[in-house]
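Fold this sequence, please.
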Amino acid sequence: MQVSSPHPLRHLSPRTVGLIAAVVTVLIWTAFIVIARASADPARGGTLSPFDIGFSRIVGASLVLLPWGWWLVRRDRLAGTGQSSIFGLSPLSLRVTATVGFFGGLLYALLAYTGFVFAPAAHASVLMPGSLPLWTALLAAVILRDHITPMRALGLGLIVLGDVMVGGASLLRAFEGGDVWKGDLLFMTAAFCWATYSVLARKHRLDAVRATIAITAFAFVTYVPAYLVLNGLGVTAGRFFTAPLGEVLFQVGFQGWGSVVISGISFTKMVQHFGPVRTTMITALVPGLSAFGAVVFLGEPLNWNLAAGLALVTLGILFGVRAAAPGAIKFKS
């Protein structure tokens, strides 16, 4: 007789599980911005480049998610269901895997990490999680034919105004030779890529775990070989294999296991227990917390235009949440 081991969360109430998931998600999303800036900013003495950090993220996530995807594909085949691609590592079709993987698994990370080379973490706090609802709403209106209500339009307008308060100032300094605008533009583009992935996942009604596995599999088979070949030929100066072991292990653990695997699962648990509207309200804490973290841990100044932009973006997110439809999106298992 086989005795199953008790699930570690079995004796916790659904509300407790949801609260734990919310805390974990907000902490990881907040830490991602602060740690990525501390790691990628050349002035802080980091060894790894944005491309090295992206390699760490993909390799770290792949160590967990690719075996998981292989197992899911084998289980589906035994049951006579499901699809697969990428040598049996992705539980989605090749077309869907390539589409969502390009935006959500490859471009998002590389653009975001490169942005931290030029712009402070406080700017990322406003322009990445802050502009994500803006891009998502606009793409959903075009691709999914979603209706933008007047209340949501007001929220989007506040987000745009907040983004202009932050990015507009750095754009004006570009004429003086500054580089911050480059980071701001990269942050906005990274948010656009993640919004594209989110809308495509909704369009294809993808399960969150399978989608995360698929985008990781795509990033692994495209980016990892390119990184190794270019570094082997001396075209790029990758430092992943020569950097201090502690720094490499930290980036693999946090960027791969934390930012991709753990926060992906905890975010899914949040949606299950709180629903999409309340979940968005909780994650609206991230811009403010990460900006505060940048001030405390990185010593970045919180200028008046940045504070005003942060307030406008957070207010815009909350307006948009109040205007959101109450029904949750159901995904395929």
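Residues 245-283 form the longest helix (39 residues). Residues 16-322 form one domain.
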